[in-house]
Design brief:
Mean pLDDT of chain A: 91
Structural class of chain B: mainly beta
Order of helices and strands of chain B: EEEEEEEEEEE
Strand content of chain B: over 45%
Order of helices and strands of chain A: EEEEEEEEEEEE
Oligomer: heterodimer
Radius of gyration of chain A: 14 Å
Helix content of chain B: under 10%
Mean pLDDT of chain B: 92
Number of helices of chain B: 0
Structural class of chain A: mainly beta
Radius of gyration of chain B: 13 Å
Low-confidence stretches of chain A: none
Low-confidence stretches of chain B: none
Strand content of chain A: over 45%
Distance between the termini of chain A: 41 Å
Shape of chain B: globular
Largest interface: A-B, 24 and 24 residues
Distance between the termini of chain B: 31 Å
Chain lengths: 114, 113
């Protein structure tokens, strides 16, 4: 079945460092890909998305490119801030199956130190 | 503020009991989704409703059921509770059927003693 694999955390960075969180997926067909962010004590928020190969999703300085050849959707940010500390979830939605069935990775906890 | 309201925020109960979790979607959203977040299983999709009708079902146990009411709020009923049901239960909503859930509530933390 469809699945998402994220790099294990936690990831600890200093402020202004470069961030990469790796995400790879397994899916039949052409899924849409998403990154969600969960700040402490809150629900998830959609951070960015890409719906087809080579699409780049971006928001709040974060970017991810849908790479079909490597089945990847890595999240990047050039300069992280303390306020970016959160758990990041990679997810896919395969419209061929249950429409609400977002499949999530396990999440990667990011801690940014001042 | 996502606009999705979940109550209660915390729930503590015992094995064998039954609880009801409530969700009010963001204003204007017709789809409601329920997810379970636990340490071992991660985030799991449970069920989706659109405008009162069940649209998709995920890894939802037979002991669990849900419904969406005419005012679009939804309830998730968990019965014969087991220790392993302890988790965060999230509700999410979106405008249309077929959209990915965009707006998540802050969750209900269920603890089974």
């Amino acid at each position: 079945g469809d699945s998402v694999t994220q790099m294990e955390g936690p990831v600890t960075l200093s402020e202004e460092a470069f961030l990469t969180i790796n995400c790879t997926y397994t899916a039949t067909g052409y899924p849409s890909l998403f990154w969600y962010v969960q700040y402490p004590g809150e629900g998830l928020q959609l951070l960015l998305k890409a719906t087809k190969a080579d699409d780049k999703g971006s928001n709040k300085g974060f970017e991810a490119t849908y790479r079909k050849e490597t089945t990847s959707f890595h999240l990047e940010k050039g300069s992280v801030q303390v306020s970016d500390s959160a758990v990041y979830f990679c997810a896919l939605l395969n419209y061929g199956g249950s429409q609400g069935n977002l499949i999530f990775g396990k999440g990667t906890k990011l801690s940014v130190k001042p | 503020d996502s606009g999705v309201t979940q109550t209660p925020k915390h729930l503590i109960t015992a094995t064998g009991q039954r609880v009801t979790l409530r969700c009010s979607p963001r204003s204007g959203d017709l789809s409601v989704y329920w997810y379970q977040q636990s340490l071992d299983q991660g985030l799991q999709f449970l069920i989706q409703y659109y405008n009162g009708e069940e649209r998709a079902k995920g890894n939802i146990l037979e002991r669990f059921s849900a419904q969406q009411f005419p005012d679009l709020h939804s309830e998730l009923n968990l019965s014969s509770l087991e220790l392993g049901d302890s988790a965060l239960y999230f509700c999410a909503s979106s405008v249309r059927d077929g959209n990915q859930p965009q707006h998540f509530g802050d969750g209900t933390r269920l603890s089974i003693l």
